[in-house]
Amino acid sequence: MASNSHEKRLDSNLDVDISEGDQATIAQSVHNSSDEEFVADASQQSHDRDEFDATFQEISDFEYQEGAQPASRPRNKRSWIPNATKTYNEVQPYPTDPSQKWTRTYVGPVKRWTRLSYLLDYWFGDENDRQKIFNKFWHLWWQFELLPPRLSPGSHQLESAKRSWMPENFDQIQEDRFHTWYRRYLGIRTLSQTSTLIDKAKAYRWFLPQVEGEMSVLLGHVSDQKEYFIKQGESIPFSDAGFPIEDIDNPEPRNGGWLLDVGGIVLSMEWMPINGQVDQLLAMTVIPYSDQAFYKDLDDAPKASDLKAGAVQIWKFKVEKDAEGIIRPARSSPKLVHALCSSWGRVTQLRWSPVPLAVGDQVAFLAMLCDDGRLRILEIKQDSVSDDKGIFRELQEPMITLEPPKEHTLEINCFTWINMNRIAVALSDGSVAVCSLSPCQQLQRHPVHSSPIMDIVSGYPSHPFIIATMPMGGVFTLTDLNRPTAEKTYHGNPLVSLQPNVLAWNNHLKGFASIWPSSFPGTSTVSFVQSRVFPLSRHICTVEGQTTCLAFGTCHPFLLLGSSDGSVWALNVMRKITSHRQKTHKVKLFQHEYYSPMPSDTVDEDDSQPRSRGVCRILHGFLPQVNFHPLGTRVAKESKVKRARAEMRASKKMLEKIEDDDDYEDIPDADEESFTMVPGPIAVQEPLTRITALSWNPNADFSWWAAAAMGSGLVRIMDLGIENTDKEDPKEGEQAEESFEVEADGTGEINDDHDEPSFEEEGEKDVDENEVGDGDVEMMESD
Fold first, then answer.
1. Global pTM value
2. Which of 175-179, 252-256, 434-438 has the lowest mean pLDDT?
C-alpha cells in the first residue's frame, strides 16, 4: 500500500496547472519519498558551502594541495579570478550586454583558460570535498594519456574508480533495494514472462542471422600479414600486441582478446553489469546483411513481413588468472550461451539495468527496443547463461511492455535507464516520457524537441534524473526531470543526427560526449559538455570520416570513438579537457577495411570452393597522434605566416626579395605536425567497413576491456589495460592517493607557474603555432 500511495502522489504532481513554486515543493517531497529506494540518500549528497574555504589559491593546473600555502605572485590588473564570496550553486545571470551580438556563443563564468582549481568549483560545486575526490582521479589517470591502467583487485584505487562520486556503500545499497523491489514486484504482478525452448536449427532458420561461406581476414604486422579464414560463430585469439595466436596450447604469448564472427551487422551491444571476477557476458543485437544492402530494384528488398523476426544474443567470454594473479582473457573460444528470439521485429537497441548484481543473484533485467515501436523488459536468469551448451528461447510474453501513447504513427525511438524502476523513452514526435516498471504506467511526458529524438542518455548514478537528448535536427538539450518545465537548457549550435550511439555520459567528469557539427564532410568532431555548464563545449577529438559510435568508460574517463572509415580511436578525456595548454594525444587502436566479394554472376558455378563473404584487413600498431583542433591549427599557421611576412617587410634586406604579397617562398612553413582543415582527398569506404557499435566493460575488475563491432560482422574484444607501475602501498591506505606532491611555486610535473592572460588582455598579439591549444578555439562556431 505504501508503494501505491507513493505512485498516486507522484501522478498528482504531474498536473500542469499547478504553479512552479508548488510544483518544485511537491516534486522535492516526491523525490525524497517515492524514489527513496532507487536513488542515493540525499543527506549523503548535501551541499554545505560553508565547510569549503572561501579563499581560492591562485595556483596553476593540478597544484592544489590541502594545507599548502599559495606562493605569492603578481596578479594581472584585469584579474579573472572569481570572487571569493561567490557561491557556485547560484545560477549566473543572463548576459545583457548589447554588444554581445553572437547568438551561438557562450558567455559565462567559465572560460577556456580557467585554471583547474576554479574549474572544479564550477563543475563539481554541488559536491563536498570535490578537490580531494578529484585528486584521487588525477592520481589514477593523469599519467595514462591513451588507455586505462589495470588496477589491482580489491585495491583502494579500484574501489575509488568504481564509486566515482558516490558513497562507499552505494553499490550494496542499490543491490539491496533491487532485491526488495523485485520481491515486491513478484508479489503484485499479474502476468509473468513466458517463453518456450527451441532447438538451434529452428533458431537459426527463423530468428538468428545465418550466412554461408568464409570470411577472409588479413591479420598481423602491416609488412607481413597472413590470411586467415573464419566462419560464423568462430573466433581467433590474439595477443596483447595484436598478433593472432596460432598455437592455442602454448601459454605464451598471453591472450589479449578475440576476433569473433557473428555473421551480421551489430546494431547495439552492452556488457552485463555483474560484480566479481567471473566470466563476462556481452549482449548484442545482430541483423542480416540483407537488411541494409543496396538494391537496384526495390522489389528485391526484404518485405516488412520478412523483418518481423528478431533476437538478442548473449555471448560468454571466459577469464583466467596468469602467474602474476592478473585476470586476463582465457584461451578458450567465446560461446553463444543464450539467444532470446521473438516475432516483434528487429531489435534496434538494448540496455542492461544499470544496477550491478552479485554472482549469486538469480535474475537480471535487459531492456530491448523492437521495430514495432515498443520497449520490452526481459528477465534473464543467471542459470540460463551459466552453461556453455547454449540455450535458445522463443519469447511469447516479456516481463514488462512499455508502449508509446496511442497517437498516430508515434513510436519509441530510443530509451535510457534512470534507475532500476524508471526508464525515460524518447518518442518520434520529439517528446520524452518517463515510465515506471512497477506499477507499469507513464508518469511524465514533456515536449523537448520539434523533431524525432535519435539518442537519449541519463546521468546515472550521480544525476539519474538529468537526461540529455539529441534530436534528428535541432539543438542538444539537457532536461532535469525533477522540474522539467523550468530546469532545462540547451546548446545553441544546431546539429543533425541520423543515428543513435553518438551520445555518452561519464560519471567521473559528470558530463556528456557527443558528436559536433562540422562544415567539412571529410572530418567529424566530438565535444564534451559538463552538466553544470552545459552550453559550454570543449573539443575532444577530430577524426577523418564520420563518427558512427562512441563509448565512455564507466570506471574511468577514457573514450572510444568509431568512424565510418573503419578506425577506432581512444584517448583520455580528463586530460584533454582540464588543461588547455597541455599537448595531448590520441591513438588509433586499429583500422578495419572491408572489400565485398565478386558479384554472383561472375563466379564459376562449378567451383567446389565455398563462396567467399568478402575480405577484411585489420591494421594495428599505430603511433599516437597529437590531438589538436584543425581550426586552431589553421589559425596558428596563418598567424605565423602573417608574423613572418611582417618581419620580412621590416627588414631592409628582405624588402628587396619580396616581389609581391603572394610570394611565400622565403617564409618559414608551419610545424610538420600541423595540417589545414582539409587534410586530403575524401575516401568513400564500403558501407560494411564502418564501426557500428562500441562498449566499455562497466565491471570494475574488467573496466579496461572493450568491444568494437564492425559492419563486416566481426566483433573485436580487447583487453586494453596498461600495466600500472605506480602500485598502491597497502600500508599507506587512502593517504597514498590523497598526497599531492607539487612544489608550492608551481614547478611540479606541470610547469605553469606564470599567470595566463585572457584574450582581452592579449589584444591582437600574434600567437605562435606551438602555443595554440584547443582551448583557444571557440567551439560554438561550426567551421
1. 0.80
2. 252-256
